[in-house]
Amino acid sequence: MFLSTYENRLDKKGRVSVPASFRSYLSNMGYNGVICYPSFNNPSIEACPQSRIEKLSDSIDSLNPFEEKRDIFATSVLADSTNLQFDGEGRISISSKLLEHAKIKQTMLFVGQGKTFQIWEPKLFEKFKTQARKKANLNRASLKWESQFKKEGK
């Protein structure tokens, strides 16, 4: 899983090192890179393994091919997705388009989200995190751990 939060900076050539634990997780899944696309919900970059973007693509493909929703999702997710390969030192080059979407200049946070991770400008993430914690506290009863574990037989 992608866990924790790491801060890294762009180098002089515009590359950034992906946290070792994130690279290790992707490598164990058979990937030497990561898929990135602009977040719908936040000024951040969504990052996931190839299998995750394939699931999103399958979900989009399940929509009626003649409905506007299908084109909207395909354009919003797939058209702006980029497959970024790790170089020999575990770095990726994030496009200026993605960096601009996330308002990242030099420093960025890699934020674990379980099966995915996000890349944020640090100050924007701190504001988001404060709001998220307040909302999570208000909505904590929504997490139904016991019933979920019963379904899974645990």
What's the tally of helices?
A: 6
**Mean of all residue-level pLDDT scores:** 93
Spans of 5+ residues with little confidence (pLDDT < 50)?
none
Query: How many domains in all?
Result: 1
CATH class: Alpha Beta
What is the CA-CA span between the terminal residues?
20 Å
Alpha-carbon Rg, integer:
17 Å
Any idea of the CATH topology? Chemotaxis protein chec
Within CATH, the superfamily carries the name Transcriptional regulator MraZ domain
Structural class: alpha+beta
Instruction: Give the spatial strand order of the biggest sheet.
Output: 1-7-8-4-3-5
List SSEs in N-to-C order: EEHEEHHEEHEEHH
Give a quick account of the main beta sheet: strands, pairing sense, barrel closure.
Answer: 6 strands, antiparallel
Strand content: 15-25%
Based on DSSP secondary structure assignment, what is the total number of beta strands? 8
